[in-house]
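Note to self: the last two entries modelled the partners one at a time, which told us nothing about the interface. This time every component goes in together.
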Amino acid sequence: MRALVGVKRVIDYAVKIRVKPDKTGVIHENVQNSMNPFDEIALEEAVRLKEKNVIKDIVAVSLGPPKAQEILRTALAKGADRAIHVEVDDKIAEKIEPLNVAKVIAKIVQNEKIDVVFVGKQAIDDDSNQTAQILASLLDWPQALFASKVEPEGDTFKVTREIDGGHDTIRVKLPAVISTDLRLNEPRYATLPNIMKAKKKPLEKKTPSDYGVEIIPQTEILEVTDPPVRQAGVFVDDVQMLIAKLKEKGVLKQ
Amino acid sequence: MIIYGRFASSLVLAEHGDGKLNMVTLNAVTAASKLGDVSVLVTGADMKSIAQQLTKVEHVKRVIMAEDEKLKVQLPELVTNVVLASQKRFGFSSIIAGSSTFGRGIIPRVAAKLDVSPISDITFIHSENTFSRPIYAGSAICKVKSLASVKLITVRGTAFSPANIGGGSGAIEIAPSADLDFAKTEFLSQDVSNSGRPDLQTAKIVVSGGRGVGSSENFKLIYDLAHKLNGGVGASRAAVDAGYAPNDLQVGQTGKIVAPELYIAVGISGAIQHLAGMKDSKTIVAINKDPDAPIFQVADFGLKADLFQAIPELIKALE
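The predicted structure of the combined assembly is written out below.
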């Protein structure tokens, strides 16, 4: 079985982002970047399935600016066999939408005869939560979203999904797209020897036009602003004072 | 009410479970009413009573009903085909659902078939093609203009008031037939935790516990306080990861987004990802023994105290 894992380079989750004064976006300069945490989980799952001999070959793919190569090297160090970097310049990278990404991946899936695609359920920068669904739709494949457990059974995957109010279990027939939730696994760290080895693994460089895809955004960013700031609150001395304050504010009944 | 464009019309995908309409549908109807005449699509096995209920929802002009045994569990792969068939017949200018697991599963799938870029989790409608949505876990708000020929949208339920049930006079129509033969996905089972508590996302009061609660046994304190206040129960990711509370109680960027009248954060430090899920609450109370916990920066009322003393005291005081 051949797996494709989609990985995105995003501002590290621990960074407190800052909005540009001209409101055109957020500040990317001199900010720590890393692999989108959900994609790390997607990759880890593919690697575990490779260790169980379910998957033979893992292709890590990223559509992004030149620096996206760094996270592809990380993916290789964590166990991907090869990587494809579909490169766009920084300006275009900021405008990429899940529809564009899915179109490129759909082409790669066909070229590489992929059986299963793992992607994170959402990227923590645009918070879109769309790529897996769009890709599955373009390919007419089943989608198993928000996976918290993935069990291969013959030419199917049994997937437990995180849903509102609990979880459910579905079976998808391969080929399929699986999007991964936080609870699926604990991603491993790349060890130094593996980081060294990853430098020798193949990393192909492509452009969207190699796949006949033109990046045409359908969504124009008009303005990026700070969220409304909450007014500073007060400390209360004890429980009695807390209750009094809440009653005063009308939040608790008198 | 503002209606943009003369022939603008919007389709809302109704969400339901256990024979009941999911309330986020009513928030979506309000959002849809700002974009044109509202139709609602309801899919499932036995939909008559929910369809009837939907006809009475304000703003709703038409209820499209697709009944089929195959739609019983509303697999996104099948519902997508019903939405596409309806779109083909009626040519809606926007298609809208709540940004729940249901809506997120279907809207992008439909969008791909129509070759349009969907807009996720909108919190404000400026005009028929301009919306605001949070990015970076709510650390920034992005105003976007969609150039898509059809707007495929999920809406953040807490950002739109629910449409009233009553006053509407929609008519029920049978949905155009759609291909329901997608045999590549099979629904096996569902386990929805029935806590007996008000639904987390619609509760007026939410009490959430974090890592500070210390154990799943101690989490009973959180339930007890929520019970006393007739509120919903939430949890931070730390509490969920530690096994103190089930996953579906998680509030935050990757869990539920809530905006109740009163949010009480107990033993929660207040990481960005948690704040993303609750910082639009009307009043926030933080109870934490660490005075430097970031949660106090968003709290209206902060109580620096040991939760194991403060919560029982609070419960007692509310008797």
